[in-house]
Amino acid sequence: MRNVVVVGYGMAGARLADEVRRRDPGGERVALTVLGDEPHPAYNRVLLSSVVAGSLTPDAVRLHAPDWAAKHHVDLRLGGAVTKVDRTRRVVHVDDTEVPYDALVLATGSRPWVPPTPGLLDGNGALAPGVVAFRSLDDCARIVAKASPGTPVAVLGGGLLGLEAARGLAGRGCLVTVVHPVGHLMERQLDAGAGRVLARTLQGLGIEFRLGTPASRYAPGEGLELADGTHVPADLVVVSAGVRAETALAEQAGLDVDRGVLVDDALRTSDPRVHALGDCAQHVGTVSGLVQPAWEQAAVLADRLTGVAPAARYAGTTVVTRLKARDVDLAALGDAHVEVDSADAEVLCFQDPARGRYAKLVLRDDRVTGAIVLGAPDAAAAIVQLYDRGLPAPTDRLALLLGRALPAGGAEASPADLPASAVVCRCNTVSKGQLVTAWRAGATSLSAIADATRASTGCGGCKDAVCGIVDWLAASQPQSA
């Protein structure tokens, strides 16, 4: 029996443990130890903005029940600090205890990056009073404790997580201002036109913006001074300015590290007995900071660690980014930062700022290679299916952008017409065919489908689609239940 130790009990480490036990339910092949530094059971970080908004409770975002470890033969140790990896003796130091391993997996995730703005940190290097990062369940509790209606709040960062936090706080009645040093929002995923339309949409939901100027100083109880000389009042400053891979343990162990822990297609580090996955790992085919790559990596690594599929390899992930903010429907995928007059691509763009709609489509050889779709969920659904399946786009491009065209090959939004291979839940790579199979096996409710397939348990963006398929199955095949 192999002794596998996983350092990290976040979304990547928890999923790896699940995948290992799916392949080795009784623990006959792998003795599994999971080390987590937080005192909580694993939880879904993707849904933390919903906890801030008050639409989900902390318990609702837990990935595991309190008795999960005992039921699945996992030695789970919470609240301990892993201080050292001794690769020569193959032991991990947790506080004053040594934990031996045959194979070690680093799932240490990432840590918030705090801009070097004077005043954000106190004299000891900790966050100053009134400043909270947005990364953990404990951070959510601190934010909620200070976020009463009417409270002026500044959010540092106009990326994906910053906007989700801002929307959640605005939903609580806070007076939210997003401060972002770049001239438009979500610059990694959106072009300037989409960023402007998104800002206008969010302004209509009560969020103000200071774009193109960084904060220059923070004073507790007063707020932020910006580089352009203006002032943003804030009783609370939420820092969501990006993350950095947590590589300190890997560096201490002498592993090869760049922006993250370097791994190959087998998710091995420079030491073949040590693996890494999730936000702490750096793989050529991975976009960091998203859950889908981590969970696909977990399946590959579980195949290898249990010996079920020793040849399994991770080949990268095609990512669709979705903003999980109430009343905002945004999807971005592929290479969307292509100019309209590009010589090597067909680029179409539609803007309707007054109605919060923006759609940009990038095609090469008649295939979708990039897109931004805001405020047009029907168009987004069709374009994502084309992108996932590599199908040719319909000849009526404008109708596709407006959500009025049915893509060639049957990528229609109707559950009855979706092919079995269509991916419904991207986070967990669950197809319509898998949902139908689970339903016919007795999983006839959304919760049962989620338990059987994990669909809708990632970012939650596919919940309506999963519900639609469940409703269609119930109506069309009532005798199969």
Automatic annotation (TrEMBL):
The keyword Amino-acid biosynthesis does not apply. It comes from Saccharothrix longispora. Keywords: FAD, Flavoprotein. Its cofactor is FAD. The keyword Acyltransferase does not apply. Residues 320-380 form the NADH-rubredoxin oxidoreductase C-terminal domain. Residues 423-470 form the BFD-like [2Fe-2S]-binding domain. This is Assimilatory nitrate reductase electron transfer subunit. Pfam families: Fer2_BFD (PF04324), Pyr_redox_2 (PF07992), Rubredoxin_C (PF18267). Signal peptide: none annotated. Residues 3-298 form the FAD/NAD(P)-binding domain. Gene3D superfamilies: 3.30.390.30, BFD-like [2Fe-2S]-binding domain (1.10.10.1100), FAD/NAD(P)-binding domain (3.50.50.60).
